[in-house]
Amino acid sequence: MLADVGHVIVVDDDPTLRQMVIKYLEEHNVPGRAASNRAELHRHLEGAQPCLIILDLRLGQEDGLDLLREIRSHSDVPVIITTGHRPDEIDRIVGLELGADDYIIKPFSLRELLARVRAVLRRQEIGRAARARDPERGGYRFSGWKLERRGRKLVDASNAPVPLSKGEYALLLAFLEAPERPLSREHLLQATRIHEDIFDRSIDVQVLRLRRKLENDPSAPRIIQTERGVGYVFTVPVEPF
Q1: Where would I find the OmpR/PhoB-type domain in this sequence (predicted)?
Q2: Per the confidence metrics, is the pTM higher than 0.70?
Q3: Which domains does the chain have, with CATH numbers?
Q4: Whole-angstrom Cα distance, residue 63 to residue 25?
């Protein structure tokens, strides 16, 4: 269990779904509050800040993406977006690029939603702890590997150094700072700052190079997996140090 969990705001114009989600979260010790539109969400945000927002991108006459932009303009509160099936794929991609932390497709199981809520809150706690450290010290451990930020040094399970280019290091760092979370190609391009490279604009090429260094079988990757319609996800747990 996560310690000191605050409340979650569920933003959805379906009253039955709102109450069902809130009831389930509260049964699992996650307090919840309901909002059906922008005005109700804003009233909640004027009080105690939530630990997370679950935001439906289809809010009747209102645009959930616009609401996500508003949230991100003044807050870094974690947001899980909910969307429909394939016709809403572009919304999921845009939502992730606007700063959503995860997404779940309707109809979803309440058990999966709770797991995603807990995972996002856990990553938030890890991120806060990492930011409290000197950004040029420490690093990350994952699946037998270790990345040391000082010196930009990657070592494998046998403690042998593995050289990384600047682009590979920046890409790996972007993954390690957001593990087990779908990341869009645009997000990764911005994180690695390779827009200026006129000869290599494809994040897919960077991912392929990194897979060749991390994966036992780059053709069947287990660490960096493709998230269809979105981008990539770093699938293994990460431990900051």
Answers
A1: 137-236
A2: no
A3: 8-130 (3.40.50.2300), 133-240 (1.10.10.10)
A4: 25
